[in-house]
Known about the structure:
Residues about 1-20 have low confidence and may be disordered. The chain folds into three domains: about 20-105 and about 115-165, no CATH class; about 170-220; about 235-340, no CATH class. It is α+β, with helices and mostly antiparallel strands. About 55% of the residues lie in helices and about 10% in strands. The chain has helices at about 25-45, 50-60, 65-75, 80-85, 155, 170-185, 200-225, 235-240, 245-250, 255-285, 290-310, 315-325, 330-340, and strands at about 90-105, 115-125, 135-140, 155-165. It starts with about 25 loop residues before the first helix and ends with a helix. The chain contains 13 helices and four strands.
Amino acid sequence: MEIVVISNSFTSCNTTAKKSIVLSSETRKELAKQAKVTKEERRAQIDERHKYLISKLSDGIDLSEQQVEEAIISDDKFQLIEQFFAPNGLKKLLFFYQDVLQQTSNASLRSDGSTNSFLQKKLFLTMGSTENFTGICAFFLRMSDKVITTSNVCQEVNFGIFDCSNGNILQGLELFLSQIMIPALKSQQHWGAVKEGLKNSQIQDFLYSVDRFVDTLSSSRQNLEDRIQLAEVDIDTYVSNLQNPSDYITAGSNTEITEKLEEVLMIWIKQIRQVLVESEQMRREADDIGPSAELEHWKSRMSLFNSLLDDIKSSRVKKTLSILQAARSKTLKQWKELVITMF
Protein backbone atom coordinates (compact mmCIF):
# COMPACT_ATOMS: atom_id res chain seq x y z
CA MET A 1 0.00 0.00 0.00
CA GLU A 2 1.37 3.39 -0.92
CA ILE A 3 1.59 6.12 1.69
CA VAL A 4 -0.42 9.24 1.00
CA VAL A 5 -0.11 12.66 2.57
CA ILE A 6 -3.03 15.04 2.96
CA SER A 7 -2.39 18.74 2.82
CA ASN A 8 -4.66 20.93 4.89
CA SER A 9 -6.32 22.60 1.95
CA PHE A 10 -9.78 22.87 3.36
CA THR A 11 -10.70 26.42 4.27
CA SER A 12 -13.95 28.00 5.19
CA CYS A 13 -15.37 31.00 3.45
CA ASN A 14 -18.40 33.20 3.92
CA THR A 15 -21.17 32.41 1.51
CA THR A 16 -22.39 35.36 -0.50
CA ALA A 17 -26.01 35.96 -1.19
CA LYS A 18 -27.04 35.61 -4.80
CA LYS A 19 -29.89 37.49 -6.38
CA SER A 20 -32.70 35.18 -7.38
CA ILE A 21 -33.82 35.39 -10.97
CA VAL A 22 -37.21 34.19 -12.17
CA LEU A 23 -36.82 32.29 -15.44
CA SER A 24 -39.56 31.76 -17.96
CA SER A 25 -40.65 28.20 -18.67
CA GLU A 26 -39.15 28.44 -22.18
CA THR A 27 -35.79 29.53 -20.80
CA ARG A 28 -35.80 26.72 -18.25
CA LYS A 29 -36.58 24.19 -20.95
CA GLU A 30 -33.74 25.49 -23.12
CA LEU A 31 -31.27 25.36 -20.24
CA ALA A 32 -32.38 21.83 -19.38
CA LYS A 33 -31.90 20.82 -23.01
CA GLN A 34 -28.39 22.26 -23.09
CA ALA A 35 -27.53 20.55 -19.80
CA LYS A 36 -28.73 17.21 -21.16
CA VAL A 37 -26.57 17.58 -24.29
CA THR A 38 -23.52 18.46 -22.15
CA LYS A 39 -24.10 15.46 -19.89
CA GLU A 40 -24.34 13.06 -22.83
CA GLU A 41 -21.15 14.47 -24.34
CA ARG A 42 -19.36 13.91 -21.05
CA ARG A 43 -20.85 10.45 -20.67
CA ALA A 44 -19.36 9.55 -24.06
CA GLN A 45 -15.91 10.60 -22.78
CA ILE A 46 -15.97 8.17 -19.87
CA ASP A 47 -13.31 5.46 -20.16
CA GLU A 48 -11.59 3.03 -17.78
CA ARG A 49 -9.85 5.89 -15.94
CA HIS A 50 -13.17 7.51 -15.08
CA LYS A 51 -14.66 4.12 -14.20
CA TYR A 52 -11.80 3.56 -11.75
CA LEU A 53 -12.62 6.85 -10.00
CA ILE A 54 -16.34 6.09 -10.07
CA SER A 55 -15.80 2.62 -8.59
CA LYS A 56 -13.66 3.96 -5.72
CA LEU A 57 -16.14 6.75 -4.95
CA SER A 58 -19.03 4.30 -5.00
CA ASP A 59 -17.27 1.98 -2.53
CA GLY A 60 -16.10 4.79 -0.25
CA ILE A 61 -19.25 6.91 -0.07
CA ASP A 62 -21.88 4.18 -0.34
CA LEU A 63 -23.49 5.47 -3.51
CA SER A 64 -24.23 3.36 -6.57
CA GLU A 65 -21.88 3.70 -9.54
CA GLN A 66 -24.80 5.10 -11.54
CA GLN A 67 -25.36 7.82 -8.92
CA VAL A 68 -21.67 8.71 -8.89
CA GLU A 69 -21.47 8.86 -12.67
CA GLU A 70 -24.53 11.09 -12.84
CA ALA A 71 -23.04 13.45 -10.25
CA ILE A 72 -19.72 13.66 -12.10
CA ILE A 73 -21.11 14.37 -15.57
CA SER A 74 -23.48 16.96 -14.10
CA ASP A 75 -20.69 18.81 -12.28
CA ASP A 76 -19.60 22.28 -13.43
CA LYS A 77 -15.99 21.35 -12.57
CA PHE A 78 -15.94 18.21 -14.73
CA GLN A 79 -12.84 19.55 -16.54
CA LEU A 80 -10.79 19.08 -13.34
CA ILE A 81 -10.80 15.34 -14.02
CA GLU A 82 -9.10 15.82 -17.38
CA GLN A 83 -6.62 18.21 -15.76
CA PHE A 84 -5.87 15.52 -13.19
CA PHE A 85 -5.25 12.88 -15.89
CA ALA A 86 -2.99 15.15 -17.99
CA PRO A 87 0.84 14.94 -17.85
CA ASN A 88 2.13 17.24 -15.08
CA GLY A 89 -1.53 17.71 -14.19
CA LEU A 90 -3.30 18.44 -10.90
CA LYS A 91 -1.71 16.65 -7.96
CA LYS A 92 -5.03 15.99 -6.27
CA LEU A 93 -8.67 15.55 -7.16
CA LEU A 94 -11.17 16.30 -4.39
CA PHE A 95 -14.83 15.38 -4.00
CA PHE A 96 -17.05 16.56 -1.16
CA TYR A 97 -20.15 14.61 -0.20
CA GLN A 98 -22.27 16.68 2.16
CA ASP A 99 -25.49 18.61 2.66
CA VAL A 100 -25.94 21.40 0.11
CA LEU A 101 -28.74 23.95 -0.09
CA GLN A 102 -30.82 23.12 -3.17
CA GLN A 103 -33.64 25.05 -4.79
CA THR A 104 -36.80 23.32 -5.91
CA SER A 105 -36.97 22.78 -9.67
CA ASN A 106 -39.87 25.21 -10.02
CA ALA A 107 -38.44 27.72 -7.56
CA SER A 108 -40.09 31.13 -7.64
CA LEU A 109 -39.57 34.25 -5.60
CA ARG A 110 -41.54 34.69 -2.38
CA SER A 111 -42.82 38.07 -1.28
CA ASP A 112 -39.68 38.54 0.85
CA GLY A 113 -37.38 37.80 -2.11
CA SER A 114 -36.42 34.29 -0.96
CA THR A 115 -37.02 31.01 -2.77
CA ASN A 116 -38.12 27.55 -1.73
CA SER A 117 -34.98 25.58 -0.84
CA PHE A 118 -33.93 22.51 1.14
CA LEU A 119 -30.79 20.67 2.28
CA GLN A 120 -29.80 17.58 0.31
CA LYS A 121 -26.66 15.46 0.23
CA LYS A 122 -24.64 16.04 -2.91
CA LEU A 123 -21.42 14.66 -4.37
CA PHE A 124 -19.43 17.35 -6.15
CA LEU A 125 -15.94 18.22 -7.35
CA THR A 126 -14.09 20.97 -5.50
CA MET A 127 -10.73 22.69 -5.28
CA GLY A 128 -11.16 22.59 -1.50
CA SER A 129 -10.93 26.35 -1.04
CA THR A 130 -14.36 27.77 -1.85
CA GLU A 131 -16.80 25.59 0.09
CA ASN A 132 -17.20 24.89 3.78
CA PHE A 133 -16.14 21.31 4.54
CA THR A 134 -18.88 19.68 6.63
CA GLY A 135 -19.20 16.09 5.40
CA ILE A 136 -16.99 13.55 3.64
CA CYS A 137 -13.97 14.32 1.47
CA ALA A 138 -12.94 11.68 -1.05
CA PHE A 139 -9.54 12.35 -2.59
CA PHE A 140 -7.36 11.00 -5.37
CA LEU A 141 -3.61 11.69 -5.33
CA ARG A 142 -1.13 11.24 -8.18
CA MET A 143 2.06 9.26 -7.60
CA SER A 144 4.01 10.97 -10.40
CA ASP A 145 3.79 13.52 -13.22
CA LYS A 146 3.10 10.84 -15.83
CA VAL A 147 -0.01 11.05 -17.95
CA ILE A 148 -2.75 8.93 -16.33
CA THR A 149 -3.84 6.25 -18.78
CA THR A 150 -6.29 3.37 -18.72
CA SER A 151 -3.38 1.00 -18.17
CA ASN A 152 -1.62 2.80 -15.29
CA VAL A 153 -4.46 4.48 -13.39
CA CYS A 154 -4.51 1.73 -10.74
CA GLN A 155 -0.78 2.13 -10.07
CA GLU A 156 -0.45 5.90 -10.38
CA VAL A 157 -3.51 7.07 -8.45
CA ASN A 158 -4.18 6.63 -4.73
CA PHE A 159 -7.61 7.00 -3.14
CA GLY A 160 -8.66 7.93 0.37
CA ILE A 161 -11.59 9.08 2.48
CA PHE A 162 -11.59 11.81 5.12
CA ASP A 163 -14.84 11.65 7.09
CA CYS A 164 -16.00 14.72 9.01
CA SER A 165 -19.71 14.04 8.65
CA ASN A 166 -20.16 14.67 12.38
CA GLY A 167 -18.78 18.19 11.90
CA ASN A 168 -15.59 17.45 13.85
CA ILE A 169 -12.54 17.79 11.61
CA LEU A 170 -10.14 16.88 14.43
CA GLN A 171 -11.96 13.63 15.05
CA GLY A 172 -12.02 12.89 11.32
CA LEU A 173 -8.26 13.39 11.09
CA GLU A 174 -7.67 11.34 14.24
CA LEU A 175 -9.68 8.41 12.89
CA PHE A 176 -8.01 8.64 9.48
CA LEU A 177 -4.54 8.48 11.00
CA SER A 178 -5.25 5.90 13.71
CA GLN A 179 -7.41 3.51 11.72
CA ILE A 180 -5.91 3.83 8.24
CA MET A 181 -2.50 5.48 8.04
CA ILE A 182 -0.79 4.07 11.13
CA PRO A 183 -1.87 0.44 10.49
CA ALA A 184 -0.72 0.86 6.87
CA LEU A 185 2.64 2.26 7.97
CA LYS A 186 3.20 -0.49 10.52
CA SER A 187 2.46 -3.18 7.94
CA GLN A 188 4.75 -1.55 5.35
CA GLN A 189 7.39 -4.05 4.23
CA HIS A 190 9.47 -1.85 1.93
CA TRP A 191 10.93 1.49 3.04
CA GLY A 192 12.97 2.39 -0.03
CA ALA A 193 16.67 2.79 0.72
CA VAL A 194 16.16 1.70 4.33
CA LYS A 195 16.87 -2.01 4.06
CA GLU A 196 16.14 -2.92 7.66
CA GLY A 197 12.55 -1.72 7.35
CA LEU A 198 10.64 -1.63 10.61
CA LYS A 199 13.73 -2.71 12.57
CA ASN A 200 15.53 0.51 11.65
CA SER A 201 15.77 2.93 14.59
CA GLN A 202 14.82 5.95 12.46
CA ILE A 203 11.69 4.18 11.22
CA GLN A 204 10.79 3.27 14.79
CA ASP A 205 11.31 6.87 15.91
CA PHE A 206 9.12 8.05 13.04
CA LEU A 207 6.29 5.64 13.92
CA TYR A 208 6.56 6.62 17.59
CA SER A 209 6.27 10.30 16.61
CA VAL A 210 3.17 9.60 14.54
CA ASP A 211 1.62 7.70 17.46
CA ARG A 212 2.36 10.60 19.79
CA PHE A 213 0.89 13.06 17.30
CA VAL A 214 -2.37 11.07 17.21
CA ASP A 215 -2.40 10.99 21.02
CA THR A 216 -1.97 14.77 21.09
CA LEU A 217 -4.70 15.15 18.49
CA SER A 218 -7.04 13.01 20.57
CA SER A 219 -6.21 14.98 23.72
CA SER A 220 -6.80 18.31 21.95
CA ARG A 221 -10.13 17.12 20.59
CA GLN A 222 -11.20 15.90 24.03
CA ASN A 223 -10.20 19.20 25.63
CA LEU A 224 -12.30 21.11 23.10
CA GLU A 225 -15.27 18.84 23.74
CA ASP A 226 -14.85 19.28 27.51
CA ARG A 227 -14.67 23.05 27.18
CA ILE A 228 -16.46 24.75 30.06
CA GLN A 229 -18.59 27.84 29.54
CA LEU A 230 -20.35 29.85 32.19
CA ALA A 231 -24.08 29.20 32.28
CA GLU A 232 -26.09 31.21 29.79
CA VAL A 233 -28.43 33.43 31.79
CA ASP A 234 -30.74 35.98 30.22
CA ILE A 235 -29.31 39.29 31.38
CA ASP A 236 -29.51 41.25 28.12
CA THR A 237 -32.34 43.34 29.53
CA TYR A 238 -29.97 44.68 32.18
CA VAL A 239 -26.67 45.05 30.31
CA SER A 240 -27.38 45.54 26.59
CA ASN A 241 -27.90 49.32 26.67
CA LEU A 242 -24.94 50.28 28.83
CA GLN A 243 -22.79 52.86 27.01
CA ASN A 244 -20.91 55.05 29.50
CA PRO A 245 -19.91 55.07 33.21
CA SER A 246 -23.09 56.89 34.26
CA ASP A 247 -25.19 54.03 32.84
CA TYR A 248 -23.36 51.56 35.10
CA ILE A 249 -23.83 53.79 38.14
CA THR A 250 -27.54 54.11 37.38
CA ALA A 251 -27.90 50.35 36.95
CA GLY A 252 -25.93 49.75 40.15
CA SER A 253 -28.34 51.94 42.11
CA ASN A 254 -31.31 49.87 40.94
CA THR A 255 -32.03 47.20 43.58
CA GLU A 256 -33.94 44.95 41.16
CA ILE A 257 -31.03 44.88 38.70
CA THR A 258 -28.32 44.31 41.32
CA GLU A 259 -30.27 41.48 43.01
CA LYS A 260 -30.76 39.75 39.65
CA LEU A 261 -27.10 40.11 38.70
CA GLU A 262 -25.98 38.88 42.14
CA GLU A 263 -28.05 35.75 41.56
CA VAL A 264 -26.36 35.30 38.19
CA LEU A 265 -22.90 35.80 39.68
CA MET A 266 -23.62 33.20 42.38
CA ILE A 267 -24.65 30.71 39.67
CA TRP A 268 -21.28 31.27 37.95
CA ILE A 269 -19.40 31.01 41.27
CA LYS A 270 -21.03 27.67 42.09
CA GLN A 271 -20.29 26.41 38.57
CA ILE A 272 -16.60 27.32 38.80
CA ARG A 273 -16.31 25.80 42.29
CA GLN A 274 -17.76 22.56 40.95
CA VAL A 275 -15.22 22.55 38.13
CA LEU A 276 -12.39 23.06 40.63
CA VAL A 277 -13.64 20.24 42.85
CA GLU A 278 -13.95 17.83 39.92
CA SER A 279 -10.52 18.79 38.62
CA GLU A 280 -8.93 18.19 42.02
CA GLN A 281 -10.75 14.88 42.36
CA MET A 282 -9.31 13.76 39.02
CA ARG A 283 -5.89 14.86 40.23
CA ARG A 284 -6.12 12.71 43.38
CA GLU A 285 -7.33 9.70 41.41
CA ALA A 286 -4.32 10.05 39.10
CA ASP A 287 -1.73 10.19 41.94
CA ASP A 288 -0.54 6.62 41.39
CA ILE A 289 -0.12 7.01 37.63
CA GLY A 290 3.12 7.89 35.81
CA PRO A 291 4.47 11.18 34.45
CA SER A 292 2.58 10.91 31.14
CA ALA A 293 -0.77 10.89 32.94
CA GLU A 294 0.43 13.74 35.17
CA LEU A 295 1.33 15.81 32.11
CA GLU A 296 -1.99 15.00 30.47
CA HIS A 297 -3.84 16.10 33.61
CA TRP A 298 -2.16 19.51 33.66
CA LYS A 299 -2.67 20.02 29.94
CA SER A 300 -6.35 19.23 30.37
CA ARG A 301 -6.58 21.53 33.40
CA MET A 302 -4.90 24.37 31.51
CA SER A 303 -7.29 23.95 28.57
CA LEU A 304 -10.24 23.89 30.94
CA PHE A 305 -9.20 27.04 32.76
CA ASN A 306 -8.33 28.82 29.53
CA SER A 307 -11.87 28.26 28.30
CA LEU A 308 -13.19 29.65 31.58
CA LEU A 309 -10.84 32.61 31.33
CA ASP A 310 -12.15 33.39 27.83
CA ASP A 311 -15.68 33.44 29.21
CA ILE A 312 -14.69 35.58 32.19
CA LYS A 313 -13.27 38.14 29.75
CA SER A 314 -16.49 38.21 27.75
CA SER A 315 -18.61 41.36 27.52
CA ARG A 316 -21.55 39.94 29.46
CA VAL A 317 -19.37 39.01 32.46
CA LYS A 318 -17.45 42.31 32.41
CA LYS A 319 -20.68 44.33 32.33
CA THR A 320 -22.17 42.26 35.15
CA LEU A 321 -19.09 42.79 37.32
CA SER A 322 -18.99 46.53 36.52
CA ILE A 323 -22.60 47.04 37.61
CA LEU A 324 -22.04 45.08 40.82
CA GLN A 325 -18.88 47.06 41.47
CA ALA A 326 -20.86 50.27 41.09
CA ALA A 327 -23.38 48.85 43.57
CA ARG A 328 -20.57 47.79 45.95
CA SER A 329 -21.98 44.27 46.00
CA LYS A 330 -20.56 41.91 48.65
CA THR A 331 -20.70 38.96 46.23
CA LEU A 332 -17.72 40.45 44.40
CA LYS A 333 -15.47 39.39 47.28
CA GLN A 334 -16.34 35.71 46.68
CA TRP A 335 -15.80 36.16 42.96
CA LYS A 336 -12.35 37.73 43.36
CA GLU A 337 -11.21 35.05 45.82
CA LEU A 338 -12.37 32.35 43.44
CA VAL A 339 -10.59 33.84 40.44
CA ILE A 340 -7.37 34.09 42.50
CA THR A 341 -7.75 30.41 43.42
CA MET A 342 -8.09 29.50 39.75
CA PHE A 343 -5.08 31.39 38.45
